């Protein structure tokens, strides 16, 4: 599902809301998640999962085309851990 499909689905299920308002709500939620991660905070959505930032150390990598050694800088990457409810539903163990 992409963002526009999510907005359309929420608008469809909530006919009392204008689609432009639903779009603002969805965009605000995503912006807040991104802002929190940029600050180094953890974002937890109960039953769904938790977003956090993991640090990857600097290392020496290899250029796959030439095999030449390449220095890779330290970086921070987003990480998502599923919640128990989501994991159970994906595995057919509905609660």
What does this entry look like structurally?
This protein is an alpha+beta fold. It folds into two domains: 1-41; 45-95, HU Protein, Chain A (Irregular), CATH 4.10.520. The protein is built from three helices and five strands, in the order H-H-E-E-E-E-E-H. The protein has helices at 3-13, 19-38, 84-90, and strands at 43-45, 49-56, 59-62, 69-72, 75-82. The protein has a three-stranded antiparallel β-sheet with strand order 1-2-5. Helix 1 packs across helix 2 (19-38).
SSE pattern: HHEEEEEH
Low-confidence blocks of residues: none
- DSSP strand count: 5
User: What is the count of structural domains?
Assistant: 2
User: CATH superfamily of the largest domain, called what?
Assistant: IHF-like DNA-binding proteins
CATH architectural label of the largest domain: Irregular
Instruction: Return the structural class.
Output: alpha+beta
Strand order of the largest sheet: 1-2-5
Largest sheet: 3 strands, antiparallel
Helix content: 40-55%
Q: What is the mean predicted local confidence, pLDDT?
A: 94
The shape, in one word, is elongated
């Amino acid at each position: 599902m992409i963002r526009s499909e999510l907005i359309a689905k929420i608008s469809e299920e909530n006919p009392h809301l204008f689609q432009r308002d639903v779009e603002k709500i969805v965009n605000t939620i995503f912006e807040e998640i991104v802002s929190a991660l940029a600050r180094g905070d953890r974002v937890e959505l109960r039953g769904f999962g938790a977003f956090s930032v993991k640090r990857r150390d600097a290392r020496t990598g290899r250029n796959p085309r030439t095999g030449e050694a390449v220095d890779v800088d330290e970086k921070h990457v987003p990480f998502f851990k599923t919640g128990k409810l989501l994991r159970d539903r994906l595995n057919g163990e509905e609660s």
